[in-house]
Design brief:
The complex is a heterodimer of chains A (306) and B (255). Chain A is built from eleven helices and four strands. Chain A has 306 residues and is mostly helical. Chain A is globular, with a radius of gyration of 20 Å. With 255 residues, chain B is of the alpha/beta class. The chains are: A mainly alpha (306), B alpha/beta (255). Chain B: It comes from Microvirga makkahensis.
Chain lengths: 306, 255
């Protein structure tokens, strides 16, 4: 029981990070029908941006409040990563729009390789640790066997930040004219243009939002694990993509749900079975779900009334 | 529309710069030519209709005006501006609205959101007023404001497409087969709405129709399109009475 609750907490934390990344995949897929394979590396890049600015703020500028530093770092990481997201779309994808379907996909793989190598060259190949940031934990209850169920401050921060940003994001997409334009382009780009929507700008905006949420995930990842390397874009990226597919690619709530499910499967599998096979477990569940629900859990079937 | 009024209208247009003018426009789909050099004018305050058979290129002309697909040759001017190479969304911002072929309702947005999309160009300046107006024109939509566009029936979607186009208070309204798939009673209703918009609000209307009889009766002027060429033009009445038009588009038709 204690282990179960503990793993639930751990799984939800990990799952929120996956969910944040998954939104970037699902939004881009929704609007231009392309899997942005570079998105995982954008996430990795944002973790490095967060790391660099965290060090600048704490050691050079001498900000002693970790919470304040984290807040500033989060904002900076979101802004800079958004710029990267915007630039990547501009340079690598937009010129290929209207080209054959595989072209932007290949370009995305190229961007992915570029980003991880760029970070490797610029930052070195070794793991980069952060100084320990927040260590406190709250012991929720003590088990009979002496196993304590605890939730760390880090986990609380991650869950709260994720929830707050997802709410803001949801509000933007559902209630603002920006979000409406975004959804319109996703459903019918040609019609959106006929109504005066600048489709190119809206697609750029989608990349910017996706990258900003990836930056939140990157900062949270750094906070959680305290270490990041240039290769860290790949596995979380693939997991988040899996989450997007599991939840139903194109569906925003699906991405979050898929992220949580993948996070939970992974942690529970590690706790009860074997940690070596946690990725196998996550991907197997994906395969099984897709056999029975090809459009994912919350995805819509392809057929639409005309 | 009486004959006198049509002639008056045509006389009025003489020497005036047209609101929309299409000159020698050729449009291709890949290597296949769809418009073979179209000339056409729409003057301010007019209802102009374009009739023709399936596949004649009517809808292509509508979309070419909006630059999607783009005219490979020729020029399109609107209110004195050359819009041939302008991006689609900028053309829309010049206060031209279209209810396109296939209606193109946003299926996963509510009726209300679809209407909001229509109003986004003019920055929601008169949103409540315009919403009320289209709800009065199409009471059916009012009942369904919170329903998703994709769940509407074909006729309701057609109404929504027209209502959405009206939300931006366009100077020029392009309607692509507004009568398609609608019950005769609703067709009649829609045509009377078009007439009302034209007469009361002075809205200029360019109407593509297969329902030639109704369209020609309503329009001040008309054009006939056959496989990418304009083959005939005249006042609505002239075309209605033309033996060729009658033989090709009206016999056994809607009267």
């Amino acid at each position: 029981m204690e282990i179960f609750v503990q793993q639930l907490i751990n799984g939800l934390t990990l799952g929120s990070i996956y969910g944040l990344i998954a939104i970037g995949y699902t939004m881009v897929f929704g609007i231009i029908g392309m899997v942005n394979f570079a998105h995982g590396d954008v996430f990795m890049l944002s973790a490095f941006i967060a790391l660099i600015f965290f060090l600048i703020l704490t050691t050079w500028l001498g900000i002693s409040s970790v919470a304040l530093a984290l807040f500033i770092v989060l904002i900076i990481a979101m802004v800079l990563t958004s710029l990267w997201g915007w630039a990547i779309e501009r340079v690598a994808y937009r010129p290929l729009r209207g080209s054959f379907r595989l072209a932007p996909l290949i370009s995305a793989i190229g961007v992915s390789i570029f980003l991880s190598n760029f970070v490797q060259v610029a930052q070195g190949a070794r793991n980069k640790p952060t100084p320990p940031m927040i260590r406190d934990v709250i012991v929720l209850f003590q088990g009979e066997s002496g196993y304590n169920v605890a939730i760390s401050y880090k986990q609380i921060i991650i869950m709260i930040v994720t929830a707050v940003l997802l709410s803001i994001f949801w509000y933007i997409v559902q209630k603002t004219s920006l979000g409406r334009a975004q959804r319109a382009c996703e459903q019918d780009r040609k019609m959106a243009a006929l109504l005066g929507i600048n489709v190119d700008r809206t697609i750029s905006l989608t990349f910017v939002i996706g990258a900003a949420l990836a930056a939140v995930a990157g900062t949270m990842y750094l906070l959680y694990y305290g270490v990041v390397s240039f290769a860290d874009g790949f596995v979380p990226g693939v997991k988040a993509f899996t989450a997007a597919v599991l939840g139903g690619i194109g569906s925003l709530p699906g991405a979050v749900l898929g992220g949580l499910i993948i996070g939970l499967i992974e942690t529970f599998w590690s706790a009860y079975f074997s940690i070596e096979y946690k990725d196998v477990a996550a991907f197997s569940i994906l395969a099984i779900v897709l056999i029975f629900m090809p459009s994912g859990i919350l995805g819509r079937p392809e057929v639409e009334k005309v | 529309m009486t004959a006198g009024a049509s002639i008056q209208q045509t006389a009025l247009n003489a020497g005036r710069e047209p609101l929309l003018s299409v000159r020698g426009v050729k449009t291709y789909y890949g290597n296949i030519i769809a418009l073979k050099g179209v000339d056409m004018d729409v003057h301010e305050g007019e209802i102009v209709t374009l009739i023709g058979a399936n596949g004649a290129g009517k809808s292509t002309l509508m979309m070419t005006i909006f630059g999607n697909p783009r005219a490979r040759e020729g020029t399109i001017t609107y209110a004195g501006r050359d819009i041939t190479k302008m991006p689609t969304h900028e053309i829309a911002q010049l206060s031209i609205a279209q209810s396109p072929e296939g209606r193109r309702i946003f299926p996963r947005m509510t009726v209300f959101e679809n209407l909001q999309m229509g109003a986004s160009i003019n920055g929601f300046a008169h949103f409540d007023q315009d919403l009320e107006r289209v709800c009065t024109l199409f009471p059916r939509l009012k009942e369904r404001l919170q329903q998703r566009g994709g769940t509407l029936s074909g006729g309701e979607q057609q109404m929504l497409a027209i209502a959405r186009a009206l939300m931006s208070r366009p100077k020029l309204l392009l309607l692509d087969e507004p009568s398609l798939g609608l019950a005769p009673l609703i067709v009649k209703q829609i045509f009377s709405i078009i007439k009302e918009l034209n007469e009361k609000d002075g809205m200029t209307v360019f109407l593509v129709e297969q329902n030639a009889y109704h369209a020609l009766k309503l329009a001040h002027r008309g054009y006939v399109m056959v496989t990418g060429n304009i083959t005939m033009s005249g006042t609505g009445k002239e075309l209605l009475e033309d033996p060729q038009v009658r033989a090709a588009y009206l016999e056994g038709g809607h009267h």
